[in-house]
Automatic annotation (TrEMBL):
PANTHER family linked to this entry: CYTOCHROME C-553-LIKE (PTHR37823), MENAQUINOL-CYTOCHROME C REDUCTASE CYTOCHROME B_C SUBUNIT (PTHR37823:SF4)
Keywords for the protein's UniProt record, in alphabetical order: Electron transport, Heme, Iron, Membrane, Metal-binding, Transmembrane, Transmembrane helix, Transport
PROSITE patterns assigned to the protein according to its UniProt record, in alphabetical order: CYTB_CTER, CYTC
Family to which this protein belongs: Belongs to the cytochrome b family.
Subcellular location: Membrane
Protein name listed in UniProt: Menaquinol:cytochrome c reductase cytochrome c subunit
Location, primary (coarse class): membrane
Keyword Zinc-finger among UniProt keywords: no
Membrane-spanning ranges: 46-63, 105-124, 136-154
Organism: Cytobacillus kochii
Taxon lineage: Bacteria, Bacillati, Bacillota, Bacilli, Bacillales
GO molecular function terms noted in the UniProt entry: electron transfer activity; heme binding; iron ion binding; oxidoreductase activity
Mode of membrane association: Multi-pass membrane protein
Length: 255
């Protein structure tokens, strides 16, 4: 009697009789192609991207982002500034053909065309060559995109008033300002609060007037002769009223 004679095998209908695993096509027979795009090549790209992502996350943890003061919806003079990797788009929206009535062009159409072309570049230029000189379309388009982003970022950085931006976002200590004081009313009458804020917290490129590190004589000189973006001759009151304003500013201290 042979072994296994008379035995019967019963299969489960829920399990396929032939289980085929996904095996990428062998490209060794084709010159210039060594592996399948999916999943071999794409998996390598994802792994490299994951390494850079982890490195970027480590940088964000090690270096805390600079914080500004609490957002004030009433401060219409505040000029927001995006992070460095969006500065080129920020600069693009400053040009006439991409702002105002053409804002849709600068915000959607131009970025959509550029990023869409970058996403389609690997599928448009499917040449097997790896040398940049042998792939003029892909190389030229990438160099053009890199040059455009670099130029716009540089223009944004070069023409931005960083001192005013740092001053408008500077975190200042809270102070109790006596709005009924004569010095405060004189500042209000001479439009000083338009730039320095109703709570003297600063704004519109003007510094805060809390804990001013100037002597009364220096404060008086700034009011009369101006400094930075502040022009001279704004205060039109008498010398006695000027002294009251200087005394009031010098008395404001943080809590």
């Amino acid at each position: 009697m042979h072994r296994g004679k008379g035995m019967k095998f019963v299969g489960d209908s829920r399990i396929s009789a032939e289980r085929k695993t996904f095996i990428p096509k062998d490209y060794s027979e084709y010159p210039g192609k060594t592996e399948a795009f999916w999943p071999n090549f794409l998996l390598k790209e994802w792994m490299v991207g994951a390494v850079f992502l982890v490195g970027f996350l480590c940088l964000t943890i090690a270096h805390e982002p600079p914080l500004e003061k609490i957002a004030d919806p009433s401060d219409t003079a505040y000029i927001p500034l995006p992070d460095w990797y969006f500065l080129f788009l920020y600069q693009l929206l400053k040009y006439t053909y991409a702002s105002g009535p053409y804002n849709v062009i600068g915000a959607f159409i131009i970025p959509g065309l550029v990023f869409g072309a970058l996403a389609l570049a690997p599928f448009i230029d499917r040449g097997p060559e790896r040398r940049p000189s042998k792939r003029p379309f892909a190389t030229g388009f990438m160099l053009l995109a890199l040059a455009g982003v670099t130029f716009l970022t540089w223009e944004s950085v070069a023409h931005h008033d960083w001192e005013a931006a740092a001053e408008q976002g500077k975190i200042v200590a809270d102070a109790e300002v006596d709005t009924e004081a004569e010095g405060y009313k004189l500042m209000e009458a001479n439009t000083c609060l338009t730039c320095h804020g109703n709570e003297l917290q600063g704004g519109a490129g003007a510094p805060a007037l809390i804990d001013v590190e100037l002597s009364p004589e220096e404060i008086k000189d700034v009011i009369q002769n101006g400094r930075g973006a502040m022009p001279a001759g704004i205060f039109t009151g008498s010398d006695e009223e000027l002294d009251k304003v200087v005394e009031f500013i010098d008395s404001i201290e943080s809590e």
